[in-house]
Specification:
The protein is an alpha/beta fold and about 170 residues long. It contains 5 helices and 6 strands.
Length: about 170
């Protein structure tokens, strides 16, 4: 058996957590991390092989601001130059612009908020539910792009919760 890189091991862990939270019929022994050029994970979903491309939702500028706050504490961090970003929009654009070798198999996109560490976690507090936010931020990007992904999922690791999927049915 080939040893997984730290990135591949992390993606496998996230994917298996997501599968449990989403209630998908995936057996863990069918989950394989794929080489560069293919989507991140290949698994058997139901009776079909399906790829999943993963994307961690993280606002890099906010992470730098958090680290700066730690370095200069107890002084305040000036946020006047901070550009507000929506990591789900930025990552979705990136993934929609990528191409993958899929060998005719369907591909789904799993975007996730990774809250295993407070410096990495970036879960947004949206008023109302995530679906309302996604309708305005993500759906227009998905609808204008070529049909690259069968479904798009948003998952939050801290609460082990699927926040959204589009469309509801593949």
């Amino acid at each position: 058996m080939v040893a997984l890189t730290a990135k591949a091991e992390h993606e496998r862990t996230v994917f298996l957590e997501f599968v449990g939270a989403a209630g998908l019929s995936v057996h863990s022994n069918t989950v394989t991390c794929r080489p560069q050029g293919e989507p991140d994970v290949l698994c058997e979903l139901g009776q079909q092989e399906v790829y999943f491309e993963l994307g961690r939702l993280l606002d890099q500028e906010m992470q730098r601001a958090r680290l700066r706050a730690l370095r200069i504490a107890p002084q305040m961090v000036a946020m006047s130059n901070y550009r507000v970003r929506l990591p789900e929009r930025e990552m979705l654009r990136k993934k929609l612009g990528s191409s993958y070798a899929t060998f005719g198999k369907p591909v789904e996109l799993l975007l996730y908020y990774d809250d295993e560490n407070w410096l990495v976690g970036d879960v947004q507090s949206y008023p109302g539910d995530f679906a309302h936010h996604a309708k305005h931020v993500m759906v227009p990007l998905i609808d204008e792009a070529p049909a690259r992904f069968r479904r798009v999922w948003v998952y939050e690791r801290f609460r082990k919760l699927v926040l959204w999927r589009y469309p509801i049915d593949p």
